[in-house]
Amino acid sequence: MMQLENIGFYFSKEEQLEINQFIDSKHELKNITVAHQRKLYISAIKLYLLYLDIYHESKNINTSLKNKLFNEENFNIFSGFVLEEFQASISRKSILINLVNTIFKIIPEKYFTKSSTFKINKYYLENIDKYKKIRRNIPEIYQSKPVTTIEGHVYFLNLTEVYELYGKNHQEKLYNALIRIAKKTKKTTFSRIITNTNQLYNTLFKICRNIDELSYKIRPDNSFQTMYDVYLLMLLNNIEKNYSLINFHQRWTAIVDTFYKLTEYNHFPKPDIDILRPVFKNSKLKTHHLVKSGEIINDKLLFEIPLHLKDDQAKEEIIIRINSTIDKTYEIVNLNISENYYKYKKYQENIKNSFSKIEQGNSRNAIIQYIENMHNNDQTKIKDNHLKTIRENIFLTDYEVLYPLLTKLVLEHPQITASWLIEWKLYENNKLFGYIKTDQVSYIISHKHRKRKKSLQKILLNTESIKVVEQIIELTQNNRSILKKLSDPNWEYMLLIKNSILQIPKRIIKIDNPSTFADRFFLYEIFKRHIDIKKLSETETSFVNELYKNFTLTKLRATVAVKIFLDTNSITIMSEALGHETLDHRLINTYLPEPLWDFFSNRWIRIFQNQIIFESMKDSELIFNAMDINEDNIEEFLRNHKIENLPKYLESISKEKTNNINNHFDLGIFLISVPLLQLLLGIINLNLSGKINNTFKKWLESSNFIISQIKLSLDPNNRGTSLYIDQEIQEMYKLALMNPLNLSDKLK
User: Fold this and answer.
1) What's the CA gap between 169 and 670, in Å, rounded?
2) 592-625 confidence digits (pLDDT tens)
3) Pair 343, 367: CB distance under 8 Å
4) CB–CB of 101/110 below 8 Å?
5) Using only C-alpha atoms, what is the Rg of the chain?
6) Is the separation of the CB atoms in 147 and 182 below 8 Å?
7) What pLDDT score was predicted for residue 1?
8) pTM of the model
9) Could you tell me which residue, 327 or 127, shows the higher pLDDT?
10) How far apart, in whole angstroms, are the C-alpha atoms of residue 46 and residue 65?
11) Contact, 710 vs 726, CB < 8 A?
């Protein structure tokens, strides 16, 4: 089968331009400016042209669009072609067929289905039969090629242009490489690899117009220059469109990674010279900043704090917004959870009472019959005039019902990620697996993809999260029973949904969030319900609407993590709450807004300095001249901050680090400054000859170690390989580099 989403690949840019010009030339179509409507019309025209190319050997835009080539009989066969050959929902195919008729005015619209359920009606069934009588094999060039990812998701690839320009052998070679990559790759990662591959080939098409040119250009001795040409073409295109250069260079690095991935699978030969990955210097060395209305904003959290605010203003704003955001999220999900559970219990009660509150008759019988048939997936007897009544009286555990429960689970346990939820199984090999309950404690268990071999993660539940998990199990029980009867292996998974009375249940394979435009509208009811029931003021409504537009479970995790940091003042506890096995100080940059981290780090330093001064000068009359604390506040300061035993959350770190220090080595501490870095750089740059003494040897080793760590921290290709080096030290290093010391002259 062919894929509707791939239809654009069958047409060159010139042909797509002609299609747009045709739409603009038609009086009744030229006013279609809404993007998604125009896109539908373009897709409909492409279907029409594709059919003509396959069955009438005419893909010429001018001839096919400007001359009426279809009569009613041809159009009927075209309808059968679309319904039979393309993989998409009946509703989508029906809409596109109708649009072709709207554009070319071929037959009366009375034949088309008006049913909101878009079932195959008698007219369509007749057309499918007509098409099958003249059906021929679809040329290989148009066939989508399936690949399957590690979790079983099937992608359909369109390699038409690769086939047309570089031939069948090269297409097959690329396809086989992508099959092998997909088998070892997660769905989301593979999606990015496909995007990168498409971008790479779309540019290669401009440089290499046939297989001979491509073979020459990607030889090991030529591929560096070829990829540099690709880079320049993509860069020029980016500049012309006034897109972000920062984002472009991040995308380019990903494209180069994909190129090397294809070399690993022998699709391209490995280059003799490493492909360039230019780093576009960014004033913010952080991964979660975006530009909005001219302001740099941290986008990791559920709310936006412009970075132009003073630190103390930003700190106060962050603390207020974090607390209010989490409180409001709890309110919203608790209300939805209780509302949904009430409806579910009411539905169970109605089943027991045979829906006695509904007047005896056909509608009541239809509901009861539907419930009986549902477990066998036998819905053929549902009549259109009963659909509305059934929808109104059947409780479905759909995505909208589960999303508030998942949200509350993340609020209680921020170590839970989207991939963890997707992989969560209630059963494994017919045995209870994902929820373990004993007399004392309860756990949930799943896999976290990023942890690789150590992916199994066990989470200890609290009172609230036990209720959430047990409610999820109860609400999905009906869906689980249906899938089990159908021998569908997905019955073992925890998160099962049924979005329509006409669909069978399915496993959740992607966590959709309100912040994604495509998913925003069907999840809005969760937030709107809170606004309506609570009768919120205009200000409160605005706050909830902003929350809903930014809301994702990933951002919720980050927001809860920052609250944990505020409550404990501990990066370690925050790291543990997020499920990280080891403390990675890059979490500071990833999760904590800069003003907040700067405020606390500066505050801790000043408190510690004042503690040392007090202990050193407590018998001196000049003590208050040296401290930031006056005589009136000294007792409160000592009560809150006097040097004594380490806090519990630091004790574990201290013990761990002490146990790990090798007794054969002395611990060296360097107080970093610009002059020291100048000295260390000067030592490294010395031209040494002859024997050096042991003291100088230690300085040389220390210099190499410190400078190498700073260099690694600045290299985006080596993130995670250095010690944590904060931005202040990096800036001092850059200043030292610009002002080098010449130690050779001083040592003469």
Assistant:
1) 60
2) 666 566 656 666 677 777 788 888 888 888 888 7
3) no
4) no
5) 32
6) yes
7) 62
8) 0.54
9) 327
10) 10
11) no
Phi, psi of 619 (to 5 degrees): -100, 5
CA distances from residue 630 to 320, 423, 603, 639 in whole angstroms, order as listed: 29, 58, 17, 14
What are residue 433's phi and psi, to 5 degrees? Answer: -135, -50
Please write down the HEC assignment for all residues of 589-617: HHHCCHHHHHHHHHHHHHHHHHHHHHHHH
Helix (H, G, I), strand (E, B) or coil at 506: strand
User: For residue 502, what are the CA distances in angstroms to 180, 382, 482?
Assistant: 36, 9, 13
Residue written as tokens 């992508």? 178
Q: 287, 298, 573: which is closest to 414 by C-alpha?
A: 573
Q: HSE of 513 in the Cβ direction (CA atoms, 13 Å)?
A: 17
H or E element in which residue 3 lies: strand 2-3
- DSSP-assigned states of every residue in 658-698: HHHS-TTS--------HHHHHHHHHHHT----S---HHHHH
pLDDT digits (tens, 9 = 90+) for 405-458: 999 999 999 999 998 999 999 999 999 999 999 888 999 999 876 544 456 889
Q: Give the chain's length.
A: 748
Q: How far apart are CA 578 and CA 554, in angstroms?
A: 11
Rounded to whole angstroms, how far apart are CA atoms 431 and 492?
9
Number of H helices, E strands in the chain: 30, 13
Give the number of other CB atoms < 10 A from CB of residue 63. 11
Strand bridging mode 435-437 / 442-447: antiparallel
Lowest mean pLDDT among 252-256, 590-594, 694-698: 590-594
CA distances from 701 to 74, 599, 722, 733 (A): 81, 35, 16, 18
Report the candidate in 721, 149, 145 with the shortest Cα–Cα distance to residue 419.
Answer: 149
For the record, the structure tokens of 9 come out as 């690949």
- The 10 Å Cβ neighbour count of residue 385 is 10
Q: Are strands 295-298 and 442-447 parallel, antiparallel or unpaired?
A: unpaired
